[in-house]
Amino acid sequence: MNLRHLSLLALMALLMGLATVSCSRQGELLDTVPADVSAVATVDFKKLCEASGITFTSEGIKADDKINGGVRGDLREMLDRMARLDSEGVADFSRVAVAVAGDGAQYVTFAISDYGKLKEQAGEWLEWQPDADGYHVADVGDGCTFLCSSSQAWLVNDVRGSATKALEGLLKRAGEMPVTKLD
Questions:
Q1: Other C-beta atoms within 10 Å of 173: how many?
Q2: What is the C-alpha separation between 61 and 33, in angstroms, rounded?
Q3: Residue 46, φ and ψ in degrees, nearest 5
Q4: Is the pLDDT reported for residue 17 higher than 60?
Q5: Does the structure show a pLDDT above 50 at 1?
Q6: Average model confidence (pLDDT) across the chain
Q7: Where residue 44 falls among pLDDT bands split at 50, 70, 90?
Q8: Does residue 73 come out as left (phi exceeding 0), alpha (psi in the -120 to 50 range) or beta?
Q9: What is the C-alpha to C-alpha distance for residues 21 and 89, in angstroms, rounded to an integer?
Q10: Cα–Cα distance between 152 and 86 in angstroms, integer?
Q11: Quick one: CA torsion of 80, 82, 84, 86, rounded to 10 degrees?
Q12: Which 8-state DSSP code applies to residue 158?
């Protein structure tokens, strides 16, 4: 497993471990999460970074020397790309939903406004594949797949079989009973 994949898994663990459910502006994302998931949380990832001393800017992240010393390599590159995407309005990392399905599959989702710019900013960080089942697909490796529609992106991990089919199943169940309909 290379460092890029470890950084991605570390980010997922961070999101899942530190996320707290928030009622503000999360409805659209949570409408795509079915009520039958084992766990769900939302996080303002941008605010979480700011609380840790990392600021998103149009050039990437800004942080003091102590934090810069610990945020380097693939993790730094990933955070710089996320900061630029957020600053340009291409992706919204102030509203991120994380879900764990009953079979252990993990989903991280956030809103996007421009797939073309997202793909351009992702550069070599993602290995783009041919579109499948109506989604733009990128391989992240080690069981992780990145999927995009015109308005939303998902990071899908630990699914058995096709990531697009797993996401379609998740969205179908969400259409029948989203987590937002629970009391």
A1: 16
A2: 30
A3: -65, -45
A4: no
A5: no
A6: 82
A7: very high
A8: left
A9: 23
A10: 13
A11: -150
A12: S
DSSP E strands: which ranges in the chain? 39-43, 55-57, 60-62, 91-100, 106-112, 127-132, 135-141, 144-148, 152-157
Q: Which residue has the tokens 């080690």?
A: 142
User: Does the reported pTM lie above 0.85?
Assistant: no
Which residue is it, tokens 């707290």?
20
Contact 29, 170 (CB under 8 A): no
Q: Which amino acid is at 21?
A: V
Q: Which residue has the tokens 């079979």?
A: 103
Q: Which residues contact 131 (CB under 8 A, 6 or more apart)?
A: 137
Angle at 129 between CA 61 and CA 150, to 5 degrees: 65
Query: If you ran DSSP here, which 8-state letter would residue 160 be given?
Result: S
pLDDT band at 5 (very low <50, low <70, confident <90, very high): very low
The three-point CA angle 28-29-30 to 5° equals 95
